[in-house]
Recover the amino acids of this structure.
């Protein structure tokens, strides 16, 4: 099971259609900022599909490209777009605390700490709609890892 084509199209459209002058909605920013960690997590489920998307986003993919690098390669492409669009550098958990994110670029700048991760995981676990779409089993440990790797993206 791989990443659905609708999910791929969603992320490509977001990446291509955002502009610096656009006032980003918090839900869109939330999805985009979590995407690099999520795609690194899901890549092993279908590396070829992840590499295909990375190539569509400008990555140089050739016969020497290894499947085990698919998540990193796609994540790197997403980060390039995020940096060009001046997307904040860290998962926007400020959504829950504040709507003023324009001058913040790291989760720690927004008052979040690693110690907040267990509470965030606990709040995510009941969201079966999100978790059941994952091509890999996703429980507490996996969510903790995803939140941790979304604190600071680059």
């Amino acid at each position: 099971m791989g990443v659905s084509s609708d999910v791929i199209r969603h992320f490509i459209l977001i990446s291509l259609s955002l502009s610096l002058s656009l006032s980003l909605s918090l839900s869109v920013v939330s999805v985009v900022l979590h995407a690099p960690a999520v795609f690194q997590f899901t890549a092993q489920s279908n590396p070829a599909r992840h590499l295909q998307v990375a190539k569509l986003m400008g990555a140089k993919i050739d016969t020497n490209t290894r499947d085990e690098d698919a998540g990193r390669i796609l994540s790197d492409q997403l980060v390039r777009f995020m940096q060009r669009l001046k997307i904040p550098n860290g998962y926007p958990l400020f959504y829950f605390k504040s709507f003023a994110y324009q001058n913040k670029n790291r989760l720690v700048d927004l008052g979040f700490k690693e110690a907040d991760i267990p509470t965030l995981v606990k709040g995510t676990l009941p969201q079966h709609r999100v978790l059941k779409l994952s091509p890999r089993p996703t429980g507490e440990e996996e969510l903790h890892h995803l939140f941790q790797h979304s604190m600071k993206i680059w």
